[in-house]
Structures are given as structure tokens and as C-alpha cells.
Amino acid sequence: MLNPKQEAISKNMNYNYRLKIHRLGSKTAILTKLYMNTSYMQLPRLVKVVLTVGLGKARTEKIKVEKLSESLSNISGQKPVTTKASKAVANFKIKQGEPVGLKVTIRNERMFDFLDKLVNITLPRIRDFRGIPTKSFDTYGNLNIGILEQLAFPEFNYAEGSVDSGMNICIVTKTKSQESAKHLLTLFNFPFKDTVHG
User: Fold this and answer.
1) Is the pTM of this model over 0.70?
2) What sections of the protein cross the membrane (predicted)?
């Protein structure tokens, strides 16, 4: 017999499992039909989402760096790690080992939550958004989306004195081509330019 703590963990695991099946079940069925001669393990799938923010001139201002880190943490649900310069760049007055950016890697359910928010809330809030261009895919089938202002995210609260900054979102997929990656992300309602109307 499970104790209260074990029972709570079990219920949470069951909920996460049902949520995952709900999110992936119909999509897996569609992908199986699209790739009939492909084994289940070789079907296109999402691997992770990597969020990166460049610090720019703010790298020398501790308070601004803290605000950017706090904002990225609120948006992603995880604490960012600091990326540092691997070598000095004299033209930009960057020293080796100096902080130059912030990064968060999201996986599993948190990844699905973020993508759901990105597609249904954040992208529609971007002024003059006309869809994601297919050239945003790299040769490995990963999608890179540049967000000019974090203000598009509902977690960003300008009134709190947050420092707004651009962000790059890299959606890493396990696919064999850009076309397969696009098929996969279209099932998650990603608005590509050729599918957005109006």
C-alpha cells in the first residue's frame, strides 16, 4: 500500500502520462500514416527547446543582467545559465570568460507547455506577425525563431522594471529533413507563412 507521498507522486505521474498521450497520440497516428515505412522510433519528434538571450552592453551592468535572467526564468520556468565568451573580441571590448548571454534548455512537459504558449499567445501578440518563414529551418530540421521583444510573452511585466531584450528560440527536432520537421511542427499548429491567411 502506498503512503500519502507515494500516492501523490503516482497521481502526478499518471496525469503527466495522460497529458503526454493526449498531446502526442493523434499526432503520432498522423505521422505514422505520412511515414508508413518508418519505424516508430524513427518518426519525427521534438527533442528540446533552447532559449538564448544576448547580453550586449548590459553584460557590464549587474542589475540589468539580473533582470534579464529573472525575465527569462519567468518565461521558461527554469533558471538560466550564463554563457561566457570563449575568446576575447577586441572590437566589441569583450574579454575571454566574460558573460555574453543567457541560455535555458527546456525538455519534456515543460517544453510542450512553452510551445503551446508560444503558438497560441506569444506569436499572435507580435505586431505585424505574418507567419514563420520556412527559411528559419536549418539543414538539420531545427527551427530558429527570433523574438525582438520579450514583451510578447505574458510573463513579461514591464511595470516591474524588467529589461526588455530580444530572444532566439531554437526548436530542436529529430528529423531527416526540413520537410519532415515542418510536417511535425504543423501538427502542433505552428503558423508558417504559407499556412497563415488574412
Assistant:
1) yes
2) none
